[in-house]
């Protein structure tokens, strides 16, 4: 269903080099500490919380990695690190061969926009925009023309079974439909990696099964990193890492 489009010939040298690797995501000895104010540690005098301790793993292209563990185990912190939304205190995060920790904020943003799609548990759709406009939003940031944005968003909504709902606002859609819109939006820039945080957490069993089928389809030629408490959601993963107190407790 979700065939990869041709890579943009205008991509930067950083992005071109990053596509040479078949390992989509690699964490090398990643440790992350938060300060008492909730942000990254800034001072040795600040009380700290260690969210991750020496976490390492690879995610090849065409595979799904599941992350499980109790609340506070580090799942969301890993997703944020993979997406370049935070820089770990120690260690390296490689996205398609490029070390995100060595980049400037602007370079990380560019890498995220080009290579990462994010699926949130609570959808994070803009309520005043139609389904099609929500899907097209990342393409506005990418500088894609209006006609191309419309065509791409329409095609993606049709691919997730919502071709007849493209003009509806999020408030006019069911929970499952909103999650499908969110998945279509995550795919709009044709990313190499999808990160999904509890993608079925707000859905009933039948609707959740439909969303998992979509994620499985997506994972055929991309890398997917999904965090969940739900065993059914994790059953679609090729490998599952169990986290406890910020450390890898088990891999299966």
Automatic annotation (TrEMBL):
Respond yes or no to whether keyword Transport is given for this record: yes
Query: GO MF annotations for this entry?
Result: ATP binding; ATP hydrolysis activity; transmembrane transporter activity
Protein name (database record): Putative ABC transport system ATP-binding protein
**Domain of life where this protein originates:** Archaea
**An annotated GO cellular component:** plasma membrane
Q: Region (Disordered): which ranges?
A: 1-22
Which terms are listed as keywords in the entry? Answer: ATP-binding, Nucleotide-binding, Transport
**Gene3D superfamilies in the cross-refs:** P-loop containing nucleotide triphosphate hydrolases
For this protein, the record's PANTHER family field holds: ABC TRANSPORTER RELATED, IMPORT ATP-BINDING PROTEIN
The UniProt regions of compositional bias labelled Polar residues, in chain numbering, are 1-12
Q: Which residues form the ABC transporter domain?
A: 25-251
Entries under Pfam families matching the protein: ABC_tran
The answer on whether this UniProt entry bears the keyword Hydrolase reads no
């Amino acid at each position: 269903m979700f065939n990869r489009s041709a890579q943009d010939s205008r991509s930067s040298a950083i992005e071109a080099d990053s596509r040479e690797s078949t390992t989509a995501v690699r964490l090398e000895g990643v440790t992350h500490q938060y300060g008492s104010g909730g942000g990254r540690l800034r001072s040795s005098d600040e009380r700290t919380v260690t969210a991750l301790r020496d976490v390492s793993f690879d995610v090849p292209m065409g595979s799904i990695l599941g992350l499980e563990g109790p609340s506070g185990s580090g799942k969301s912190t890993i997703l944020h690190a993979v997406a370049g939304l935070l820089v770990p205190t120690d260690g390296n995060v490689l996205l398609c061969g490029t070390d995100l920790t060595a980049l400037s904020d602007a370079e990380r943003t560019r890498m995220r926009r080009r290579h990462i799609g994010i699926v949130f548990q609570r959808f994070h759709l803009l309520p005043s925009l139609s389904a099609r406009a929500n899907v097209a939003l990342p393409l506005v940031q990418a500088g894609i023309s209006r006609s191309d944005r419309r065509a791409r968003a329409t095609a993606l909504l049709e691919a997730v079974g919502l071709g007849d709902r493209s003009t509806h606002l999020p408030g006019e859609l069911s929970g499952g439909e909103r999650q499908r819109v969110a998945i279509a939006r995550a795919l709009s820039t044709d990313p190499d990696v999808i990160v999904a945080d509890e993608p079925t957490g707000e859905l009933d069993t039948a609707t959740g099964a439909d969303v998992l089928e979509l994620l499985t389809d997506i994972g055929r030629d991309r890398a997917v990193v999904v965090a969940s408490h739900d065993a059914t959601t994790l059953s679609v993963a090729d490998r599952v890492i169990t986290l406890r107190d910020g450390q890898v407790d088990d891999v299966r």
